[in-house]
Amino acid sequence: TIHLTVEASQRLTVHAAMMGMDRSELVEQLIRDHLKRFVVSDRGGALEPSPQAGSNAVAHTVEDARSRAAS
């Protein structure tokens, strides 16, 4: 859950609408485009997700890594 000010929420809504996106898509694009300093990778770890990390989190990490490799 992310808490935004009313102004930030309105700006997000307007910008998403003008770009033909929903708010979640816009937030994901902003994260992809602007949060590149740190990279999370698994260099030879177990193939099965650990009990602490759900499979959804692993899927997003793999998808993000593929997206970065393609750009």
**Helical segment count:** 3
Give the overall pLDDT as a whole number.
Answer: 81
State the separation between the terminal residues, measured CA to CA. 28 Å
Note the beta-strand portion. Answer: under 5%
Which shape, going by the Cα principal axes? Answer: elongated
Helix content: 55-70%
**How many β-strands, per DSSP?**
0
How many strands, which pairing sense, and closed or not: the largest β-sheet? none
| Backbone structural class | mainly alpha
Radius of gyration: 15 Å
Q: From N to C, what is the helix and strand string?
A: HHH
Low-confidence parts lasting 5 or more residues at pLDDT below 50? Answer: none
Task: Put the structure in a nutshell.
The chain is mostly helical. The chain has three helices and no strands.
Give the key terms:
single chain, 0% strand, elongated
Describe the structure.
The protein is mostly helical. 59% of the residues lie in helices and 0% in strands. The protein has helices at 6-19, 23-34, 55-70. The model has no long low-confidence stretch (mean pLDDT 81).
Topology summary:
Elements: H1 6-19, H2 23-34, H3 55-70
